[in-house]
Amino acid sequence: MTPPDHLVKARAADSECRRSRVLKALDQLAASGEEISVSAVACAAGVHRSLIHRHGDLHAVVLAQAGEPPVGAEAGMQVSRKSLLGDVANLTARNGRLSAHITWLERRLSATLEQAAWEASGLGAPADIEMLTRRVTELEQQILDLRAELDERDKDLAAARATNRELMSQMNR
Q: CB atoms < 10 A from the CB of 73, how many?
């Protein structure tokens, strides 16, 4: 079922009216030096953004006009939308790098604090293990020397007791 001819003509007239409003709004925004974007043009024309996106020619005209410097801007004061977008992209990348660096620093600080807390609790390994190992070796050697000396004294004591027993038994006879 095809729509009546007058409905097709009304739809075409409405579409042409909206297109002309978009182009007129684009010219007005460019003349006033305001920001040009799909949303700004759609708002000024009183249409939805999807109308501009659906019509490739309108979309291309809006994007082309958005990339040009505003009319009446001084040569030294011109800031294009592309340069602003470039600045935003650079700053976003810098924020990402700084965020990654902060995360790395936080991990490093956390590891350092963890190590310090572990050592302060007395549960962690002491800082100078080599010195302590040498001291343990010295003390073990000292223990061996003292045990040898004690064994020697035990033998001397046993000999003195044996001699004492013999003398006592000789005296008793």
A: 12
Segment 118-153, tens digit of pLDDT = 878 877 666 678 888 899 999 999 999 999 999 999
Would you say 71 and 51 are in contact if contact means Cβ atoms under 8 Å apart? no
Question: Around Cβ 139, how many Cβ atoms within 10 Å?
Answer: 10
DSSP symbol at 109: H
The CA distance from 6 to 14, in Å, is 12
Q: Which of 35, 59, 60 has the alpha carbon at shortest distance from 47?
A: 59
pTM over the 0.70 mark: no
Residues 6+ apart with CB under 8 A from 52: 22, 38, 41, 42, 58, 59, 62
